[in-house]
Amino acid sequence: xxxxxxxxxxxxxxxxxxxxxxxxxxxxxxxxxxxxxxxxxxxxxxxxxxxxxxxxxxxxxxxxxxxxxxxxxxxxxxxxxxxxxxxxxxxxxxxxxxxxxxxxxxxxxxxxxxxxxxxxxxxxxxxxxxxxxxxxxxxxxxxxxxxxxxxxxxxxxxxxxxxxxxxxxxxxxxxxxxxxxxxxxxxxxxxxxxxxxxxxxxxxxxxxxxxxxxxxxxxxxxxxxxxxxxxxxxxxxxxxxxxxxxxxxxxxxxxxxxxxxxxxxxxxx
Length: 269
Known about the structure:
By secondary structure, the protein is mainly alpha-helical. It contains 13 helices and no strands.
């Protein structure tokens, strides 16, 4: 049974395919969240906006992992593969993290071993290294050509993206005060530092004279787009959309920082 999207090598014909592994994971995420928020600690409450945000994050995950985006990205179009990377790292994690109430995050991280691990992996330098290593590794031709044709390998790539994205956005969002979140200027610098390394694979994909992935070069074509055009589109997607998300978030943080400073000055005067 095909439980997760992987490269199949068969012609693409838009025939719907079931991927029960995606459904089970999505159902487990929603069920666990619904069960948890029904039992908040005393004097704690869960804002409806957080519930909506978490559900939107799960829906974004489902759309990126399931048919048709999942199989297209796994074995037909590297541009869709890159779009999946952006969704799994730049869209889903901030929605999930923001959707989790602080009391629930604390409950999830309460076991000492988990808390120590979380404190280590969410350090800005550690999160920076992990995110960028995962980003480069999962776009390296040998890794893509080896892992994407297998369900386990393809699942591993998707989960690596999600894990790296959670670490990245934990630093940016600073959801818990006890984890010593960065100041607004620190978060802005962290975001801007993450602009440069993705430029390397993005430029490589955009300006290469030939397809760098055997998997996508030899895959049956979808529509009239060639393998080289598909690869160029992938590079532009990573560079433009990824940059838009990072610079847009940095802009929001800047204005929040400015507002906080103005409020502090007003209190002082």
